[in-house]
Every structure is written in structure tokens, then in C-alpha cells.
Amino acid sequence: MNTKNNQRYRETEIRMDAAMLELMKHTEFEKITVKKICETAEVNRSTFYAHFTDIYDMLDRMEDFLHQELLESYPSHSNPEDLPFSDPLILLFLQHIRKHQYFYRIALQTRRAFPLKQGFEPMWNLILKPRCQAAGITSEDEMMYYFVYFQAGFTMVVKRWVDTGCKESESRIAQTLKNCIPAVWQTSKGDLE
């Protein structure tokens, strides 16, 4: 029986994800349909809907999976306070984006809203909030404005990089991202070196 989270269920979902990624390489997102995903993955429509509510749900879940893959790629001895500002961790992030650029090109085009603290919880709690507090900002509402500013800029830099086929080197984009860090978070010059 193919019940949720058994081996067969997971293998089917992986096939559908792979089909979606393959379609993303050469098809505009607006032209990707459930029918095409099912044909490529060799599954029925009912199988697709047993796993996902629609294509956007599929994208969201694929993004969650890739986010988890990214987190697992960070060295276990990494200090969470280094995120996202240390060169090695930014480079790992950008290598991950380059590896999955077909997915991120579409995910960033179809994003309906910035994820704000969702998925950014460690960055918010361990880095951004303490840096705002160190700068004398105590209102979480005001902190959130800085966070939104940083996240929007960060996302748009990555989107531009992906939209241009990741032509620039990871180190060049990493430097651009570091240059965009709000001055209020740069508590000391040595933090970013």
C-alpha cells in the first residue's frame, strides 16, 4: 500500500520533483502543467494530487527540501553567529543556488511574498536582532523594517544573478551581498572581514 511517507510514496514524490526540475530547464513556468509533470514522471494526476494541492504547493515543498539540503551542507562546527556574513557560508549558499538555478529562477519569479522570519529564524534570533539591539534599536517593529530591507535586497541580488545564468562568480556576488549589509548591523569593522 502506498501510504504517506512510506518508501514508495517518497520515491514517487522524488520522481515528480525531478520531472518538475527537468521541465523548468526548458519550459516557461506558466506553461508547466500538472499534466506535463505527470507525463514526465509517468504518474497519474490523482497521484500528483495525493502529494500536492497544486504546482505552487509543489514549488513551496521543493523549496523547503532544498533549504534543508542547504542547511545540511553547512559544516556542523559552524558557529550560527557567522550566518550569513562569513565568506565560507555565503559561498556555500551561492554554490547551492548555482547548482539549483533552474528551480530558483522560477521560485524567485513566482514568490508571492518574502518569507520574512520563516526559514530565517536562526538568522533573526542569533544575528539580526542582537545587532539591532547593539545599535540601540529595541522595537521589534523597527527591527523588522531593517530585516525586510536586508531580505528584499538579498533576494533581489540573488534573483538578478540567477536570471543572468549565474554568470558572475560566487565570490563576486558574495562581496556584493556583504556590501549591502545595513550599516546598523555592522557592529564592528572586524565583523565582516
From TrEMBL:
It holds the Pfam family TetR_N. InterPro entries: Homeodomain-like_sf, HTH-type_Tx_Regulator, HTH_TetR, TetR_C_Firmicutes. Keywords: DNA-binding. Residues 10-70 form the HTH tetR-type domain. GO terms for molecular function: DNA binding. Residues 33-52 bind DNA. It comes from the Bacteria. This is TetR family transcriptional regulator. It comes from Hungatella effluvii.
